[in-house]
Amino acid sequence: MMTGPVPALRTPCVVRRCLWAMLLLVAMTLPARAADTILVVESYNAEMQWDANYKEALQEALGKKYHLEYFQMDTKRLPREQHAAMADKAWALYQSLHPVLVILGDDAALKLLAQRLGTTATPVVYLGINNNPREYFDAKVIRNITGVLERPILKRNIALVSELVPHVKRALVLFDTDITSQVVRQETFEGKSQQLIGGTLVELKLVGQWEQWQAEVLKAKDNYDVIFLGLYQALHDGGGKSVNTTDQVARWTAAHAPVPIFGFWDWAVGPEKTIGGLVLYGRDQGKAAAEIALKILAGTPPERIYPVTADRGKFLYSRKQLQRFHLRLPASIAADASYTD
């Protein structure tokens, strides 16, 4: 006959067996997770349409076979002195995940992480890079990094505006003061604030404060015939608070622009935003980066894949904004144009 203490003696054994089974399951899962994880480090934040667009393309191409883990460095909204700390957090996540591949979105991530990742055997693919990658790492020494360049077609876009706006003589190009904007000034404008492009005198202004940005827009008609909306996501107000929470800047700028306003990226075009232009798409960057990632994961070493430039741009316009400024697309552009509305 069984006595009372017997079940009590068996209970710890049952618990121990359950714990061992759970630990075994975890041990079996961890290597598999590391083997199929891709770490995506975003320079910016999830709310940015640019990030959302390239991540969508990455997910479509890689998500069925790999788990994509995202880290947002949030460099557009955080003060510059905090960027290095965010890079440290991204590095710590990399070390804990042991991913099969790393994708770095935009210049800040590559600038702050290339040297550390270059000491590892993990392949790295970048996207959205405006600067020359050699500014961030020596490709002769670091052989595990390659990717996709972003070349904003500012000059061609500006030159085309004369086909829409008759007698255009002067143009204002507004950018924030973030790293990408600095690169645009250095690479596209050769470090100058003014340039003559296709007969149009173009002035580039890098603005850090929201109130100054508003003032530049409101008085634009005094000196300019058109405005080009560049990057604005790093703008802060007078109190140091980021205004990059929604499309507030693009919508306000378009609504108050006293002259026709054009854009360089697809996220800046719409019935409540800019007229449009020859724009770049975040999806194209994500798609091109995914293609490189798949080649690497199939066995091609990164050093054998030369950096590529994604799509050279597409014509995208808002019918509402064209009508607002009484503009008509010439047949040569209209034949290839898409519309947001």
Automatic annotation (TrEMBL):
Short name of one Pfam family: ABC_sub_bind
This protein's source sits in the domain of life called: Bacteria
Hey, what's the signal peptide range on this chain? 1-34
Known InterPro entries for this protein? ABC_transpt-TYRBP-like (IPR007487)
The UniProt keywords, alphabetically, are:
Signal
The protein's name: Sugar ABC transporter
